[in-house]
Design brief:
Number of helices: 8
Structural class: alpha/beta
Radius of gyration: 18 Å
CATH architecture: 3-Layer(aba) Sandwich
Strand content: 15-25%
Low-confidence stretches: none
Order of helices and strands: EHEHEHEHEHEHHHE
Shape: globular
Strand order of the largest sheet: 3-2-1-4-5-6-7
Number of strands: 7
């Protein structure tokens, strides 16, 4: 959103190398925030993170990108320490965005040739895609890194509220993520920090391609959407910038649709 000034301050983007996280990192940098980008990439995709960091830096903002598992408790302590060092005595964290799309896909019960999800897979998916948000909020608050007027955002999906074939464990995790957001909205309010979940329309991201029947989901989304197209990561990034503005201090505890009317359309 050109012309919007949210700085000075920092945003912490979990899942910063692709999809919603990448677009948000760039948009928030354009709006004046320095960026700590947490991403988990192997050599084959590491250039994606480097490209996002370069785009952040092109807006004359600091880009501190860390290749690590954001759900690893030990590494999280290291990453929070790095954020504390980056912030120094300057303005702290204005935005924490949880945009981690890593979990087990499949049915909850065995059907035909499809095996049911295992307990350890369910536990991992819940930890990475839901519980880790609470842990990050706890850590940033404990270190005094959130500023008043700060924002916590989490990327959810329709799968948190309706059953999607093959989406089982992730759908459960999205429902849990929305519950975490509601709880954080209440508990962070005295600190002047809001929390909201963002439910984007079906979007062409690396995560979408891993969902069974992704082509069918995309085609149905195009049919339903009043604008006849899929949501783009930049649509969501623009909404995040707007929701971070001071005029949205009273918006908290919600699941906010950013989908061009896809959810409400017949």
């Amino acid at each position: 959103m050109s012309g919007t000034n949210l700085g000075p301050g920092w945003c912490v983007v979990l899942g910063a190398s692709s999809g919603f996280g990448a677009a948000a990192a760039v948009a928030l940098a354009e709006a004046g925030l320095d960026v700590v980008g947490i991403h988990l990439d192997r050599r084959a995709t590491l250039d994606n993170a480097k490209a996002v960091a370069e785009r952040v830096a092109s807006h004359d903002r600091q880009a501190r990108f860390i290749n690590a598992n954001a759900a690893d408790p030990e590494r999280r302590d290291e990453m929070v320490a790095a954020i504390r060092d980056a912030v120094g005595t300057g303005p702290g964290v204005r935005v924490l965005l949880h945009s981690i799309a890593f979990g087990t896909l499949g049915p909850l019960v065995a059907t035909g040739d499809a095996r049911a999800v295992k307990p350890r897979q369910m536990a991992m998916t819940l930890d990475v895609m839901a519980s880790s948000l609470a842990a990050w909020a706890q850590a940033l608050l404990a270190e005094g890194l959130f500023v008043r007027g700060g924002r916590v955002f989490a990327m959810t999906s329709e799968g948190g509220r309706r059953a999607i074939p093959g989406y089982g464990p992730v759908g459960v995790a999205k429902a849990a993520l929305e519950a975490v957001v509601r709880q954080l909205a209440v508990e962070l309010a005295p600190h002047g920090v809001t929390a909201n979940a963002i439910c984007a329309g079906v979007t062409e991201t690396p995560a979408l391609t891993k969902i069974p029947g992704a082509d069918v989901l995309a085609a149905e989304a195009r049919r339903r959407n009043p604008s006849g197209r899929l949501t783009q990561p930049e649509d969501v990034a623009g909404a995040l910038v707007a929701l971070t503005s001071p005029g949205c201090d009273w918006v908290t505890g919600n699941v906010i649709q950013v989908d061009g009317g896809e959810f409400v359309a017949a």
